[in-house]
Each structure stands twice: as C-alpha cells, then as structure tokens.
Write a structure and sequence with these properties.
Blueprint (H helix, E strand, L loop, with lengths): L1 E2 L14 E2 L4 H15 L4 E6 L4 H13 L4 E5 L8 E2 L6 E2 L2 E5 L3 H17 L4 E4 L4 H5 L1 H5 L4 E4 L8 H14 L5 H16 L14 E2 L4 E2 L1 E3 L6 E3 L3 E4 L3
Parallel strand pairs: 1-2, 2-13, 3-4, 3-7, 7-8, 8-9
Antiparallel strand pairs: 5-6, 9-14, 10-11, 12-13
Helix pairs in contact: 1-2
Length: about 240
C-alpha cells in the first residue's frame, strides 16, 4: 500500500505501508544540522508560523546541538535584527531560519535577508521550505548564503524531465499539475523498485529521484512502515 500524501505516526505501525510524504521533522533535523556547521557564536532568529511547532522543535534541537546558542523565535521577518560587536560597536551578522511555508511570509523573509546582507557581510539564511521569491531573487539571496530545502520540483533542464514534459504536453496540451506529477513519480518509482517476482520491498533501500520527487525510504521502526526522508538541498553561494 502506498500513501502519497498522508504522513502521521499512527501509520508507522503498518509494515506493508509505503509513505511518500516527507514530514516536517525530517526537514527540521536537516536545518539544525546545516546551522550547526556554520555556527560561530551568532544570534539565531527563527521566523515561525502561527502554530510554532516547527520553530519550537528547531529551537530545542539547536540548543542541544550548539553550545550556548542564543535562539529567538519571532513572528515576522521584520523582527530579525543584526547583532552588535561589543568590541567595535559595529553591526554583526546573524543566522535567520524561515520555518513557515506561507508564501507571503517567505517573500518578507527574502526581502529582509536581502536588506540585512546589504548592511553587513556574513549573513546566513536557512529555510525549511521553498517559496517562489527564492527563485526570483537568486543573486540577491546568495549574498545571505541562503540554504533551503525542497521537494516536488521539476528540473526542467534535465534530459529525462524534458522528455516526460514534452510527451505530456503533446498528449494534453498543457504542463502537468501537482497531482499528475506526484502520480507519475510514485508509480514510476514503485515500478523501478519492483523485481521480476513483483516484489517491491526487496529494493526499498535504493535512493531514486523521479520527475520532481526524491525517494529515500527508511523503516520507521522494526516491522513498521517505510517513510520517505528524501529532499533536495539548494545552496545559494555568493
């Protein structure tokens, strides 16, 4: 049984279940790992959504992973402020993390990171999600060394992707929508794992990227469901 969209702990008990949707905790763990590698005593701001679940999780794990981490959860990007060097009195860069998938919040985050990176060098920006403004402002956001995670994104420059998109356009006279892409990816991935005996679970350890989705399955627990932990890491380098 394959679940393309559902992902909750209640489903992890079913050993015959394959869960395609990557959960937010997986993304959050990666952001914590990324921040830890660049941390150098900077203040850390997390721009949260209304629920603050992801923000609280990231804050708690950063405080475990980074010694003496100074982490503040804020409600909007405008609350992200530069630090001050106590020795020189000059502005100092900070680390900012976007933990909201709201496009408007993402737009505000982008604008704030661009503004702060013009004031001081060394800004470090991270995001759990991809928002439209990231692709529109690549050069500007690279000055903040933005690192963000994404899935369900088609690499339109790839030869495989071009072939599939051309075939879809030829048949339907339009580009594939979200559900068409997911349907293709899930079916293609499962067929690629199936052996001559029709068995899928024997090849679940293979990491594969289809049209828009990266598949990297792990067992949720012994005799439990397989859960996709795959995603892409995008790094904008100055």
């Amino acid at each position: 049984v394959v679940a393309p969209f559902a992902n909750s702990p209640e489903l992890y008990n079913y050993s015959n279940l394959i869960i395609v949707e990557t959960n937010d905790q997986t993304y959050s763990d990666k952001i914590v790992e990324e921040v830890k590698t660049v941390y150098s005593d900077q203040k850390i701001f997390i721009v949260a959504d209304a629920k603050k679940e992801n923000a609280n999780y990231i804050k708690a794990n950063l405080e475990k992973a980074v010694k003496n981490a100074n982490v503040t959860i804020v409600n909007s990007a405008s609350e992200v402020q530069l630090d001050q060097n106590m020795m020189t009195g000059q502005s100092a860069p900070v680390i900012a993390i976007l933990a909201s998938d709201n496009d408007n919040v993402g737009e505000a985050f982008s604008s704030r990171m661009i503004a702060l990176s013009k004031e001081v060098q060394g800004m470090k920006a991270f995001s759990l999600y991809s928002v439209p403004s990231f692709e529109k402002k690549v050069d500007e956001l690279s000055q903040a060394s933005l690192v963000y995670l994404m899935d369900r994104k088609i690499n339109t420059d790839g030869s495989f992707e071009k072939e599939i998109l051309a075939a879809y356009r030829a048949k339907y006279c339009k580009i594939p929508g979200k559900y068409a892409v997911i349907g293709f990816d899930v079916m293609n991935d499962m067929l690629a794992r199936e052996n001559k005996k029709g068995e899928i679970f024997k090849q679940m350890n293979k990491v594969q990227t289809q049209l828009a989705t990266k598949f990297e399955f792990v067992k949720s627990k012994s005799n439990g469901a397989y859960v996709n932990t795959g995603f892409r890491v995008i790094r904008l380098v100055p």
